[in-house]
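Hi support team,

I'm filing this because I wasn't sure whether my run with fructose -6-phosphate finished correctly. The job status page said complete, but I'd like someone to confirm that the output block is well-formed before I use it downstream. Pasting the exact inputs I used:
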Amino acid sequence: MCGIVGVTADPDQVPNVMPMLVQGLKRLEYRGYDSAGFAFIECGSQKLLVFKNKGRIDDVVRSYGVSTYCAISGIAHTRWATHGAPNQVNAHPHLDCNKKIAIVHNGIIKNFAELREWLVEQGHRFESDTDTEVIAHLLEHFSREERDFFSAFKKALRMLEGAYAIAVLHEDEPLRIYFARNISPLLIGLGIGFNMLSSDIPSMLPYTRRFIVLNDGEYGYIEPYRVHIEKEGRSIDWRARITTITWSLEDAEKGGYPHYMLKEIMEQPRVLYETYMGLLSSREVEDAAKILADTDKIFITGAGTSYHASLVFTYYLSLLARELAIPFIASEYSTYSRLSGSDSALIVVSQSGETIDSLQALRAFKKKGAKIIAVSNVIGSTIPRESDKTIYTRAGPEIGVAATKTFLTQVLALTFLSLRLGLIRGVLTQSEYKDLVNELKRAGEAASVSIEKSSRIIERLVIGLKKSNSMYILGRELGVPLAYEGALKVKEVSYIHAEAYPAGESKHGPIALVEPGFPVIFVATPPAEHLFEKLQGNIMEMKARGASTILFGVDGYEDVKGADIVVTVGPWGEVLAPYALTPPLQLLAYRLAVALGRDPDKPRNLAKTVTVE
Ligand code: F6R
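And here is everything the job wrote out:
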């Protein structure tokens, strides 16, 4: 799970591609940042030069003076280590024995051990522990046998098993970059006098708005004025596949905030409104609801934050459509796919549309004949392309590694879906349905009011909480998935241990950890008339053990006893509560990270798009 970028340009149009390569790669840093590297053809000398090392892109660029070079073409890579420690030799690009062929790769070559053994027998010398290096040597090997390098490239691809997005630069063909995609994402950006490749769209947005999303099994090459794509030996006519993107570049940049995470939290009122309008004006939800209405079993899956959105859906589907959805964590799909068939539907929630665990779940269910509905933020990504129907969220590009704005847009899309099914099932009358859809229009307002009401107090809370090693976040009913999501945010960006439980469950074990000063945060959702007494009891139990208790709740919880601090975020009912109660927990996580000197945009050990199982 890495990021790759490649550019080739006519020097009369783009005299130096190095700035494009460096900037493009920097926008991919969210995909991993254990090491970075560049291979390029130097202007004038036409030689292949390679610079790579462990560490962040800026450090690698600075230490080798990469930006001071002039290049006519190049490939670059930012790595999230899978095979081999994150160090200089394992950093990409990797080279053949003659140091003329450079390759960058995202994904995993499953059969690399056999290939490596065979190549070593043939006399190839390996420098790294990576699976990727076998590709460089395979290319070298077959280029001795084949009449041209493209034939060698195709022969090498046939030997590879696993997931890959690769880009290859050969010193003898300075303006051509070879590429291939299988499972790992790769797109071509079309320019005037140049063409480029990248793992995602935002990294290419400053240079072009016209893209081709490559499909699994496609390979080919780009030159400054030429794109050639093949699949199974046949040329592909790609012109009808050009997508033009309308996101602004500003959407993909920080917009004056110190971090993407804060920018993305603050954007929620707007993107919720945009997602709402998009859902209202398209048929996506209606078509997806019809699929659900025709099936007996509804499953829903996702990883991390997307799984938490799936849990919120299960709550709403039961409330609004009186239907059961079976939620599961994507990587655990086998237990559930076994029970699926043509009578089933699976909803796959994935902001990136590329998470391998979710994709594998999708494929397992599809094989059994289940219908697939995707909820995704990325048009043209793999999960939507393999689904029967996709509901798109319209959160815009999310650069911070921690999911924030995409969570609530997923919740919004899934709530629409629950409402629609409620209408089809006759659980909701037409006028109840209309009223609820109208109420959802205020999702953005709920987020904005809540941010306004909670920001100050969160800054004060952080002063005490940043000293804690651990905390609990507890809720009941709808509050449970919101608590899970809050705890995930706190631990991933601040590195403070935060665990979420249903508040009722806390007595069945977790309370053993509670001692004087231990922080316990309660997420108090509506209806207060129904939950107040029980939550009140849970707060008292924690208080009696000396816990430091904080409550984030909708209006109606002001008079709760036993909470040291009560933050109410507005008068929101059941369908709007997630939009009001999620942002304070996101802000808390963000502020804790900043107070502790962590980088909230790039938490350690994480990557934005997880394409390894
Ligand atoms: C948490 C986070 C991850 C993702 C998960 C799924 O902040 O970002 O847990 O939610 O990796 O990613 P998608 O939604 O792209 O499938």
